[in-house]
User: What shape does this take?
Amino acid sequence: MRTILITGPGGSGRTTLAAATALAAASGGTRTLVLGADRTDSLGAALGVATGPKPVEAAPGLTAWRPDAAAGFRDDLAAFQERATGVLDLLGASRLDPEEVTPLPGAEELTLLRALRDAALTEAHDLLVVDLPPTPQALALLALPEELRRYLRRLLPPERQAARALRPVLGRLAGIPLPAEWLYETSTRWDLELAAVEAVLADRHTAVRLVAEPGPAGADAVRDARLGLALRGLPVESLVANRVLPQGADGDGHDGPLGRLVAQQRKTLEEWGGARTVAHLGHDPRGADDLAALGVPAVNRDTSPVEWPIADRLAADGVLVWHIPLPGAIREELDLIRRGDELVVTAGPFRRIVALPSALRRCTVDGAALRDGELCIRFAPDPALWPRTT
Assistant: This one.
């Protein structure tokens, strides 16, 4: 199944275009599911059909779903309390009733990730359109599965689970309580759930559609978004310039407010090059007719994945070169740190800790350079670790 993640700066109309993209695909005969997570039903307002915890048919071939973060949070908390009964009794802690629980910050994001995983595993649809939060929150959300899995592996390494049978004995000998069985089981369950979400995001059929209004603020947001997505290895399916004013809309002349806005949009569109445009309707789109009138571009099904290739230059220069595409990166805002078998990459406001490929783990960092939006890191073989050649 093809998955299109739609995001953009706040107020850019991303939810409306998510609804329009899904409706256009369904109208063309593609079985489509559109997924949203806003507390307010902005997705339903655009579609003209109320959406909620139960999937509804918004149009022929189109299903809309807005999972309930509050219900999911209550269920997770109830399950946690059940598994941790022994610890809670030992501490004398009282249980929380589901009725008194309200979602904590981040519950919507976790609910959306879980729904994304569940939707991608079904075979009832051919296209999944996901209305993500505004770009800064969306990038943090997309990074969450990988980062949480890394935290779990550091705090509760899987290899320690092999000593489950010895924990009671070790606890008595050491005189301190060791992690209980339920903690490892919970860690394993979370790791499997997060791995499933990671698999969806890393799938070659998953890509991002960026939505922004052409202008200085939109250009800055798109530049940051491209950099953050590239660092996460997520390809951009298309850039959609929304609410574009038509030629000749500057009825007040080039020097009037509307004329200056048209000129500003045209300048940004020239900078964006191949951006797809969606015209301004003169009002907020509501319902199927308005969404169809937007004329959103069809989903590109041939998006190239983001690759981080390793070039073998051992024979010529004695190094391996890791090529990491970082469009829009600024040299002064780049930072690299080697930590064991991991590389910490910081690009502007974004940071990612990646595991080194096996060949590079036996090397030392020999230098790095940023050229034409690509970070090239040189690795020299470590004589103590590199296989000897005869």
Remarks:
- Residues 164 and 185 are 11 Å apart (CA to CA).
- The chain has a mean pLDDT of 85.
- DSSP finds 13 helices and 15 strands in the chain.
